[in-house]
Fold this sequence. Notes:
alpha+beta; 4-stranded antiparallel beta sheet; about 25% helix
Amino acid sequence: MKHFTFFCLILLLLSCTTEKKENNQRISSNLLVDPLITVSHLYSEQAQQLLPWKNSFRVRPLINSLFYEVLQNKIVLYNPIFEDTVFNVLNKESWFHILKNNKQLTFDTTQFNDLYFFESWTLDTLETFNLQKEVLYWSPVKRENQIMKLAGKVKTFPLKEKKLLAQQLIYEFSFNDSIFANERLNKRKFAKLLFEWAIHNPHKTYNPFTSLPMTKEELYQRMNISDSSLYMPYNDINAILFVENWYYDTKTYSIQKEVLSIAPILYLFDDNEVSKQILFVIHPNNKPFKIL
């Protein structure tokens, strides 16, 4: 009897171990290649003005405020010449050298129209297409003779004095970025996961113009696929549209991003003109809203 009880106990432990292993594999299969993916991204205010979606967020007031705090020795910037994971304090002399315009020291922030972000991304698709972005650091950017210069890394810490910086900010993440290759991010797998999730959850995909849930027929028509088709056009996706809320800490200027909506963008070429088509929208954890 004792041997039988011991044998049953061993079987139970093996069963639990196998089930736990299978659950871990099931969860891992939904992530973007690695559990943690680092991504570089440039938010350009000037580029935003040329896009069909308009945003009210302006870069310059944030940079004005940041530079004032740096001059008051309340914010520490880190040297941008070092690797992304290395944080060495940027001294004032080096910072002034970056700010020089035509060999003259200037605090004219009109030369800063971009924000550079270095982030980590994680993705879970078990229930919702839940993409989490953690900003590791950000930096004001100026362009000088087609060279991009970072004005110093602003390291991100947990937000204690949290304030809304931008609401429902819409911007495009290009898959063909000539500046940032983002080789650690498997962009095609990201698009494939997005398409597969939409196909399995058509009632959770939304029309960008009406914010109404799409039927399976409408979704398939916009994706140009059918039940009998084995082809998914995720390789044709040129960019991902993100709608986000941005928050910042009024003391440390750390920035936090909250992903509200995700949408794949297809570029359509007609002679020399390019139009952009949003195939569908996913609102992972939020009430659907119109984005166009």
